[in-house]
Amino acid sequence: MSLSSYPKPTFRYDINALRCLAIVGVLLFHFKVPAITGGFSGVDVFFVISGYLMTRIIVNELKGNRFSLLRFYHKRAIRIIPALLGLIASLVVICFFIYFPDDYKSFLSYAISAILFVSNFLLYSKMDYFAPASDTNILLHTWSLSVEWQFYLIYPIALIFFNKYFRHKIRALAILAACTALVYVCCVGLNHFRPSASFYLFPARAWEMLAGGVAYYLEAKLRTFGKRKLLAGIGYLIILLCYFFFHDKLAWPGPFTIVPVAATVLVIAANVNDFSVLRAGPVQWLGKISYSLYLWHWPVYVIAQYRGVPISFATILVMIALSLVLGFISYLLIESRNIKRGFIVYTALGALAVVTLILPKYEFNARMFKPESLKLSSYSQHYFGTPDASEQFNKCFVKTSYTIKDFDQEECLSILPGRKNVLLIGDSHAAHFSSALKKAFAGLNIHLCEVAASGCSPVIRPNGAPRCSEIMSFVYRDYIKEHAKELSAVIITADWSKKGEPKEIVADVNSTIAYLKKYHLKAIVLGQTKNYIIPYPTIAA
Question: Is the entire prediction scored with pTM above 0.85?
Answer without folding.
Answer: no
